[in-house]
Specification:
The complex is a heterodimer. Chain A is of the alpha+beta class. Chain A has helices at residues 21-29, 63-66, and strands spanning 12-18, 37-43, 50-54, 57-61, 69-73. Chain A is built from 2 helices and 5 strands, in the order βαβββαβ. In chain A, strands 4-3-2-1-5 form a 5-stranded antiparallel sheet. In chain B, the strands form 2 sheets. Chain B has a 7-stranded mixed sheet, sandwiched between helices. A two-stranded antiparallel sheet of chain B has the order 7-9. By secondary structure, chain B is of the alpha/beta class. Chain B has 30 helices and 10 strands. The chains are: A alpha+beta, B alpha/beta. The interface between A and B is large, with 35 and 44 residues.
């Protein structure tokens, strides 16, 4: 099972599912829906938190929170850009 | 405008960063006020405008991502929208045009409440710059409410919005899944009832409903976006990306942050000093004038030394508050604050603090009052309370005169150790001790405080924008007003109590002393003798006063710390502000001018203990007193501000008890070990 916190900088993934009930509610209202594409666009200087591009904007979250999002990492070459 | 006169009530609702406040400023101009929602510490912004002969009363609700609140601010926004008491006639839904999809979630929810609505496509200029085209007519058809494009920064579209508000209507469109609602929540008859029911305790099934509802909404929104929006595949966010690579860089990110801190620090520490001196001098002149203008007596004394002195002690904070909020407003407005919080989160979270706790904590090296006020930017309740509680442990500028006096007694005549200067090292040590204790206290509080609000760091990093000067100025003015009128009341009341304690005595003692000295003073021909007699009179009066009596009564309690009743009096009076300690000691030792600490230092060093004939201000006593002032909550203004910012007497009480308790125990330990 791949989770969002394992992404490398610049990598893109599709959201599959959530493992935390409360956080899933928060993620969904922030536009992180299953099927949505996300891209890891920034990592804080100390390695945590991270920032992802989703739904056309930047969202920051801690790695622990990112680990509750199940994703499917997309192969690098097939995704030229992050689709909105 | 009184709330009873006929008017139309409008509420502005939207996601954080939707440019709501700028729009609010454009609509109301200067006709706005800052208040507080009952029972919570969320700022309430409201104002009014007149359009075609009708009065409109407008409230800027706190930003929220949806009608299922996840924080106190969001809860306030949802409750105010549905309030039965202050009924909202028209809802203006504000969305960021360049980030339409996510903002439409709240839009569909609000429309389902079946209240007259207007949809504002805010910051339309930014969308155009990003080559995003929005088909307004299509949106109007699908949402069935008036849609207005606005550029609130340039005030374009404001008149059109005011026109649209007149034509606001209840939409016939429905975005929620009625079947699903019946299945999950059988007793709910409308979407509005569902939203209202979540404020009842532990409503079963509401979380499942929220999940299903929002997913359903987004599938509808995808359809709407596909029909009404044309945008490039790759959004042009290059400026934000470039700035982020600098501001969140491993090295430059921190360098820049410390640079910002340095600038803020310079301003509130040094630049603020000029207006502060001006305020002090003006009040001194005013007090002098009033004292001479009014007939002598008790009333004169109350007005001059009680009320005017108290007011001076309140107004003196204005420059620091204004300057700190000027910076904070700019940092928030430009989007930098979110980045600062992003790069510092990992360090601060260990101590139960937030990335946004850093600026308040550093600022409190100047003063804890503006710092505590600035914790409003911390949205998480627990992080905010911890920051408020520990911030006053950091050594503020009012402690400096106390430190300097005590250190100069301890190290008088001692040579420096090569390159290092003892006095400088001890002084620095006190600052380090303050910081370390604040972090330690935060760490302990993190484990002690319980909260129902869940802590997370899921936060939008907004695009960088130029600061909006109007919003910045409105925020600064609002903060200054809130301090003057809310915290000011409490500070004034305590000042008057302190004035009473130091100027009154149980019997006629004070008058007696005055009469005796008046005779002696008028009898002496020499001016310098007169001055000496005058200061001796002040000293005796203070000793005879309630404060003097209290100080003596306190002596058994503070003796284990090495303090005598004279220090006891100074502890009471310096509750007004820590630096008053020096002035009170100067009065007690009748050393004349409080600004000239040289004589005071000599008198203190010459003071011998009555019983032991040892110097009263031995190193052990000085260390103990020094440590006491590092930790003790000797500041009524801080307590008043904590009350204002937490809306509960519990928090200033806890602050007072834990800080003074810590001070007492530490001084006890220091004195007993060194003595």
């Amino acid at each position: 099972m791949q989770t969002l916190d394992t992404l490398e900088l610049g990598q893109t993934a599709t959201i599959i599912d959530f493992t935390d009930d409360f956080l899933s509610l928060k993620f969904i209202e922030m536009g992180c829906l299953p099927g949505e594409k996300v891209k890891l666009s920034n990592v804080a200087p100390l390695g945590d938190p991270i920032a992802i591009e989703v739904s056309g904007y930047l969202l920051s979250l801690r790695k622990k929170e990112a680990s509750t999002i199940v994703v499917k990492i997309l192969p690098q070459n097939t995704v030229e850009s992050c689709v909105i | 405008m009184s709330s009873n006169s006929p008017h139309i009530s409008i509420a502005l609702i939207g996601n954080p960063n939707s440019g709501k406040s700028t729009l609010f400023n454009s609509l109301t101009g200067l006709n706005q006020k800052t208040g507080n929602y009952a029972g919570v510490t969320v700022d309430k912004h409201y104002g009014s405008y007149k359009f075609k002969g009708t009065d409109y009363k407008i409230t800027d609700l706190p930003g929220t991502y949806s009608l299922y609140p996840k924080s106190i601010d969001e809860k306030v926004a949802c409750k105010a929208l549905l309030s039965e008491k202050d009924i909202i006639d028209v809802v203006i839904i504000v969305v960021d045009s360049s980030n339409l999809k996510r903002h439409l979630l709240l839009t569909t929810q609000v429309i389902d409440l079946k209240k007259p609505c207007v949809l504002v496509l805010n910051m339309i200029d930014e969308a155009e710059k990003n080559n995003i085209t929005i088909y307004k007519n299509e949106l109007e058809k699908l949402f069935d409410v008036p849609v207005v494009s606005v550029n609130s920064r340039k005030k374009l579209g404001i008149t059109e919005l005011k026109e649209a508000i007149v034509k606001a209507k209840v939409s016939d469109s429905i975005f929620y899944n009625f079947e699903k609602q019946k299945q999950l929540l059988p007793d709910s008859i409308s979407y509005r009832k569902v939203i209202e029911s979540q404020f009842l305790e532990n409503k079963p099934g509401i979380n499942e409903f929220e999940l299903a509802d929002n997913i359903h909404r987004f599938s509808k929104i995808n359809y709407i976006v596909a029909k009404c929006l044309k945008q490039p595949e790759q959004l042009n966010k290059s400026i934000t990306q470039k700035l982020d690579s600098f501001f969140t860089h491993k090295i430059f990110g921190f360098i820049f942050f410390f640079f910002i801190l340095f600038v803020i620090f310079q301003f509130i520490f040094f630049v603020a000093e000029y207006p502060m001196t001006l305020i002090e001098e003006s009040f001194a002149q005013l007090m002098n004038f009033t004292s001479n203008a009014l007939p002598k007596g008790k009333l004169n004394d109350l007005i001059v030394n009680g009320i005017l002195a108290g007011l001076s002690g309140i107004v003196i904070f204005v420059p620091q508050i204004a300057l700190l909020f000027l910076f904070i407003a700019i940092l928030e407005d430009t989007g930098y604050m979110a980045r600062a919080s992003f790069i510092l989160d990992k360090i601060m979270r260990r101590f139960g603090l937030n990335g946004k706790s850093v600026i308040p904590m550093i600022s409190s090296v100047a003063c804890a009052v503006p710092s505590i006020m600035s914790t409003r930017t911390i949205t998480n309740w627990k992080d905010r309370i911890i920051t408020i509680l520990v911030t006053p442990l950091i050594s503020c500028s009012a402690r400096l005169p106390v430190y300097t006096l005590l250190i100069s007694i301890m190290f008088a005549g001692k040579q420096s150790l090569g390159f290092f200067n003892y006095q400088g090292m001890v002084l620095m040590g006190m600052y380090v001790l303050g910081f370390a204790s604040a972090l330690l206290a935060a760490f302990i509080l993190k484990h002690v405080l319980k909260t129902t609000e869940k802590s997370y760091f899921i936060m939008e990093l907004p695009v960088y924008r130029k600061p909006q000067w109007q919003s910045v100025i409105m925020l600064v003015l609002g903060k200054v007003k809130v301090f003057l009128f809310d915290a000011g009341k409490i500070i004034l009341a305590i000042s008057i109590v302190l004035w009473f304690l130091t100027s009154h005595a149980p019997s006629d003692n004070i008058n007696q002393i005055e009469t005796n000295y008046k005779i002696a003073i008028s009898a002496s021909a020499n001016d310098s003798v007169k001055t000496v007699l005058e200061s001796q009179m002040q000293s005796e009066k203070l000793e005879a006063s309630y404060a003097g009596i209290l100080g003596k009564k306190m002596e058994p309690a503070i003796k284990p710390l090495g303090f005598d009743w004279k220090i006891g009096i100074a502890l009471i009076t310096s509750f007004a502000a820590r630096e008053v300690f020096v002035g009170t000691m100067a009065t007690i030792y009748s050393s004349g001018d409080a600004d000239n600490t040289e004589t005071l230092r000599e008198k203190l060093m010459a003071e011998k203990n009555y019983n032991t004939q040892q110097p009263s201000y031995s190193n052990a006593v000085c260390w103990s007193l020094l440590i006491f002032y590092v930790f003790a909550m000797q500041c009524m203004s801080t307590l008043a501000t904590t009350y204002r910012e937490t809306k509960h007497w519990k928090w200033p009480a806890i602050q007072l008890l834990f800080m003074t308790g810590l001070a007492y125990l530490s001084s006890l330990l220091v004195f007993q070990v060194l003595n």
